[in-house]
TrEMBL record:
The keyword Ribonucleoprotein does not apply. One of its GO terms (biological process) is DNA-templated transcription. Residues 5-62 form the HTH lysR-type domain. InterPro entries: LysR-type_TF_proteobact-type, LysR_HTH_N, LysR_subst-bd, WH-like_DNA-bd_sf, WH_DNA-bd_sf. The keyword Transcription regulation applies. It comes from the Bacteria. Keywords: DNA-binding, Transcription, Transcription regulation. Belongs to the LysR transcriptional regulatory family. GO terms for molecular function: DNA-binding transcription factor activity; sequence-specific DNA binding. This is LysR family transcriptional regulator. Pfam families: HTH_1, LysR_substrate.
Amino acid sequence: MKKLPDLEAWAIFATVSETGSFARAAAELGLSQATVSKAITRLEGRMKTMLFHRTSRRMSLTESGHAALERAARILAEGEAVEAEVTEQSTSLRGPIRIAAPMSFGVSHLGPVLPEFMARHPDVVLDAHFSDELVDLVAQGFDLALRISTLADSSLLARRLCTVRILLVGAPAYFERHGRPSHPRELTGHRTLQYSYSRGGSSWRFRHKRHGEFAQAISASLLANNAEALAPALRAGLGLALQPEFLAWKDLQSGALETAMDDWQVEPIALHIVTPPGRSRPARVQALIDYLAERFAAAPWAQSG
């Protein structure tokens, strides 16, 4: 089996050659003189040739040592350069960040807050991936992701930002034509619109402070794998839907949509920032995490807890 080159020993060799002694090289590298001596002996054993002429008074390079010096010095310089570059990228706000987010939330809420972060940190390059499919952060090389759900993967590190209510909403015109339901069982007489990835599927679950839980099966007239795609049909008065408050917020404020069954609650969801396992992350990634946490925790639709 092919043996890896002894890069550490070659770096020590280059330093010994530069300083002219084992003692000075050991001091410069923060190593013991014995460690330096063993590294040179190890190299000479592997090369089956002497690299230094040693006497009690002086030390000089052999012909083989001279032949190896330029490349050994390059190994040392390249090693120092790569460590310096990686250290700079991990401690300064410079370099790429890959972030994943659900489609609707990414377009409506993540996208609008990114310009301010970009203006603050012009040397950071953002790569945003929007999809309602659950991405594998490790396999796909993401630095962080926004998740709006109950988290199942305990190997990920999660930071909870806020709670998001799920509201039953419809257009005023719809309620005028079909009435406003006051109990989940009344939904059987209403047209409904359904987000395909809804936790309860075709069964909508509600909780009441006095009456407890109630699940109602629904038959949707529109199914969509993106919750924002339901909005045009909602505004057109074509049905009711359970929507996260961050999607319905503007329409509720403008009056384009209204809520129903306010005393019946749907289990809320939570907005999290998740990162791959391992607590050490570049400063640029931590800066984006802190920035997003501050922005989204203060959003008008965000609930504490």
